[in-house]
Amino acid sequence: MNVSRYISQKIEGSDSGSFTSSVTKIAIISIALGLAVMVVSFAILAGFRNEIQAKIFSFGAHLTVSKYDNNNSLEVEPINGPRLSQDLRHYGQVKSMQPFARKTAIIKTKDEVMGVVLKGIDEVNGPSPMRQNLQTGKFLSFPDTASSEDVMISRKMADKLRLKVGEKALFYFIQNPPRIRQFKVAGIYQTGLDEFDEVYVIGDIRQIRELNAWPDSLVGGYEVVLKDFRQLDPVSENLLGNLAYDLKLDKITDQYAQLFDWLQLLNRNVVIFLILIIFVATFNMVATIFIMILERTNMIGVLKALGATDNQIRRMFFFRGLNLTLKGMLWGNVVGLGFCAIQYFFHPIPLDPENYYMDRVPIFWDFNIILLINLAVFVTSQLAVMIPTYLIARIKPVVAIKFD
User: Fold this and answer.
1) In this structure, are 223 and 357 located in the same domain?
2) Residue 278 DSSP class
3) Structural domain ending residue among the three candidates 221, 245, 269
4) Which of 59-63, 274-278, 297-301 has the highest mean pLDDT?
5) Residue 203 within any structural domain of the chain
6) pLDDT one-digit tens code per residue, 273-285
7) Which residues form a coiled coil (predicted)?
8) Are 346 and 368 found together in one domain?
9) What is the mean pLDDT of residues 169-192?
10) What is the pLDDT of residue 341?
11) Single pTM value for the model
12) What is the mean pLDDT of the chain?
């Protein structure tokens, strides 16, 4: 029989109604709330990061390969699509690639005028990631015999231009000679990111080829998706060193640096917040064990007089602290994971898309992070338990037995 554990269980049963009982409940609640807040914080942070990255990647992928030039125009010089596509396929880190081309235009309706960028895409290499942003209507059709006259505009554009799904609008292209095309609004998309919603109209890449008099082999560039986004920097360096001298490679983290900087700021704020929570929970655990030792000073003196060693008594309070920690962690996981599940399935907490880029608080289930949080709380709590137990060695049996 483990004597230290046995006595610890007896102490727990005898604490009912005492001051120690109230303090232990506070310690359990502190651990539970701290763990629940950490689980929810990481789930929401990961949800924000994944939602925003998914929206960015649906427009720009991880890497963009295009012709090198000295101006900052959104319109780029054409490159040989089949040759570049063949070169990119040699890299094992490349998951998929999509050709694109861009052309500036002016949309004119009966009452409004708006400058936009027509981004031409195709689905030869698989479905476009833009499909996930479709809000109403349908995605572009890509007929085999001719270029599609369908376009997708953002919700902001549709509201400003007073366009609805199925209606047609004139697009004016400033070139020599000027061109005019009439396109039909097949669908309306929404990302919540002004960098896209206020600028881009999505159309068939063959329309841009016809406007620029390009053969079918020319494209504006390729958007490349990697198998592992965390390998973005080393893969981009390797790829850049093997591209032709007249091609450039743009990383998504450089193109939309302000958004990724915002995500990094969120990461730092959450880390600081979590450190403070762990500190408070640890302090409460230390205070709880101190109070237990002070209230049990007489008992400690008796146990020492009967031959108990300091380590045996120390393990007794260690098991008591372990019990409190496990109870707090159990309730913390129930509350934290329960809140995440309710938000994930029922979305009771909305957000303003104008400020947060999405219409509800996002939740991302990363069970590896949840396990690490639980492990961190467990380890720090047990270390906190050990600190006050060293006071036991200073308690003298003769003095303690007289303690009242």
Assistant:
1) no
2) H
3) 245
4) 59-63
5) yes
6) 778 777 777 777 7
7) none
8) yes
9) 90
10) 94
11) 0.76
12) 82
- Kindly provide the residue ranges of all beta strands, DSSP E only, lying in 190-293, ordered along the sequence: 200-204, 218-219, 221-226, 247-251
92 and 197 in a single domain? The answer is: yes
Q: What is the pLDDT of residue 97?
A: 87
Q: Please, are residues 133 and 127 in contact by the beta-carbon 8 Å criterion?
A: no
Are 343 and 368 contained in the same domain?
A: yes
CA dihedral sign of residues 126, 130, 132, 135: negative
> Do 163 and 106 fall into the same domain?
yes
Chain center to CA of 169: 38
Are residues 229 and 322 part of one domain? Answer: no
Could you give the number of structural domains in the chain?
Answer: 2
| CA 322 – CA 4 distance, rounded (Å) | 13
Angle subtended at Cα 386 by Cα 382 and Cα 389, rounded to the nearest 5 degrees: 140
Distance CA 7, CA 239 (A): 66
Close Cβ partners of 110 (under 8 Å, ≥ 6 residues apart): none
- On whether residue 135 sits in a domain, the answer given is yes
Whether residues 100 and 240 fall in one domain: yes
Q: Is the pLDDT of residue 195 over 90?
A: no
Q: What's the domain range around 274?
A: 3-56+260-402
State the pLDDT at residue 2.
63
Task: Read off the tokens for 320.
Answer: 């008591």
- My answer on whether 194 and 101 are in the same domain is yes
Whole-angstrom distance, CA of residue 151 vs CA of residue 201: 7
Q: Is residue 366 part of a domain?
A: yes
Tokens of 368: 């590896």
CA distance 113 to 106: 7
- pLDDT value of position 331: 93
Question: What is the rounded distance in angstroms from the CA atom of residue 33 to the CA atom of residue 331?
Answer: 8
